[in-house]
Amino acid sequence: SSHLQKKRRAATARRQHLKSAMLQLAATEIEKEAAAKEVEKQNYLAEHCPPLSLPGSMQELQELCKKLHAKIESVDEERYDTEVKLQKTNKELEDLSQKLFDLRGKFKRPPLRRVRMSADAMLRALLGSKHKVCMDLRANLKQVKKEDTEKEKDLRDVGDWRKNIEEKSGMEGRKKMFEAGE
Question: Coiled-coil segments, which residues (predicted)?
Fold first, then answer.
């Protein structure tokens, strides 16, 4: 068994080593990506935002302000359009991932086997932790007491209801009911 334990330990150690190697690789990749993004940002800014040279006269300053306002407006419109596109794309992504989730849910049913199972086990399987009700069927049976059987006997003595109805119907029946004082 010690040989098996050594093998397991070696496999675990190897797994740990691979995991740490993968994490280091991922960390360096993230750093590279961040550096590349920063360079891209600097290049974009250099291209689209040339350094300002402030003119001397008031009229030239006003012209510059008008140009800058126009530029701000066009950039803002672009930003809005980009945001709308992003929202649309995100919605499409959500819909697709929902479809994917739904498709994954439709798995092949395994062939079913007959299993002997108590009602308790069945409820536990269906309801999980919510299962509190005990399904001991014998416990739910009504206890029959002596008085109950007496009542049932009284009911039996009344006899068949059809006969009673026939006896009470017509003039003869009404006469009997009148005499009986019902």
Answer: 18-106
Whether the Cβ atoms of residue 134 and residue 120 lie closer than 8 Å to each other? yes
- Give, as one character, the DSSP assignment of residue 46: H
CA distances from 123 to 89, 120, 139 (A): 44, 5, 17
How many other C-beta atoms are found inside a 10 Å radius of the C-beta of residue 149?
10
- Predicted pLDDT at 32: 96
Q: Which helix (H) or strand (E) holds 35?
A: helix 2-48
User: Pick from 96, 100, 136, 142: which is nearest to 118 by CA?
Assistant: 136
* Amino acid occupying residue 163: K
What secondary structure letter does DSSP report for 166? Answer: H
| DSSP per-residue string spanning 83-105 | HHHHHHHHHHHHHHHHHHHHHHH
pLDDT in tens, 120-168: 777 777 777 665 655 555 666 666 666 656 666 666 655 666 666 666 6
- Rounded to a whole number of angstroms, the distance between the first and last alpha carbons of the chain is 94
